Amino acid sequence: MTPEVVVEVFKNALYVIILIVAAAIIPGLIVGLLVAVFQAATSINEQTLSFLPRLLVTLATLMFLANWIFSTLISFANELYLSIPELIG
């Protein structure tokens, strides 16, 4: 196994991780920004006000995207498994 192959596998793994994490985190970040703007406009300084909406949106996003997340992970695992002969030889 050459260093180039290891780097390629690592690059693909990082791409899949970043893609899945970004899909789960970005909606929560947007809701957090909207709540922060609302808090700044109304002078409400409650810390827990921004936590609950972000949590609910992140959980809803994970539930909504669960099928896509698992299919992406399974696809990556299948590609990795099918490339074992190429990686070893």
From TrEMBL:
It is found in: Cell membrane; Bacterial flagellum basal body. Keywords: Bacterial flagellum, Cell membrane, Cell projection, Cilium, Flagellum, Membrane, Transmembrane, Transmembrane helix. The chain crosses the membrane at residues 12-39, 51-70. Its main location: membrane. It is a multi-pass membrane protein. The keyword ATP-binding does not apply. PANTHER family: FLAGELLAR BIOSYNTHETIC PROTEIN FLIQ. Role in flagellar biosynthesis. Belongs to the FliQ/MopD/SpaQ family. This is Flagellar biosynthetic protein FliQ. The gene is fliQ.
